[in-house]
Amino acid sequence: MKQILLKFQQEESNNNSITQYYQQMEFFHDAKAVRMRNAHEKYLMADEDEETVTQERNGSDKRARWTVEPVRGSFEVIRLKSCYGSYLTASNERFLLGATGRKVVLSKPSGLESSVEWEPVREGSKVKLKTRHGRFLRANGGLPPWRNSVTHNSHQSSNSSLWDVDVIEILVETTSPALALATTPPQHMRLSSPPMSKTTSEKSVEELANSQPKSEGWNS
């Protein structure tokens, strides 16, 4: 009986992990390119200097286009590549002396760096992008120099960290092993049946338990 309960608890845990994966990656799973729109109705934009990240209202500009790249070996993290071939990067440089926000820039890392990796975190119909260090992509408002700037901050409660994702190009079906490895949940998280509700799990446990032969010393 104990083994049966453990088995179903493990399956339910796996189902919850799968559900969370698809909720987090729903905005990017089939996307080849996206636009990111913030609470100020402005778009995440690669500046023409090919170093600065800013926000502007013209979403049709090519600089508002970000190519989605899955990170090999991690099914819940992505990279966003600008039209200049550089990546959205969470730098360690403070935006202003004494301020908690740090600069978000464009970079072309020579190797694999966590600073260009972002984890989507779903918030209703919107998404937050979280760095490997738990900070969030933020579109700043207000007066200069904050106006139109983009930073990453430890605070996540502000609407300035919420983004709408507009998919502008769909990923074509591919059999690439590298892509499959990067975007498919690990084997232990893949099940043939859809996630079961708690009620269904409990019923299944009860049915299996009742189907087991009772020993003479088993009190009913």
From TrEMBL:
Residues 25-160 form the DUF569 domain. Residues 209-220 have a biased composition (Polar residues). InterPro entries: Actin-crosslinking (IPR008999), DUF569 (IPR007679). Residues 182-220 are annotated as: Disordered. It comes from the Eukaryota. Pfam families: DUF569 (PF04601). This is Uncharacterized protein LOC108836404.
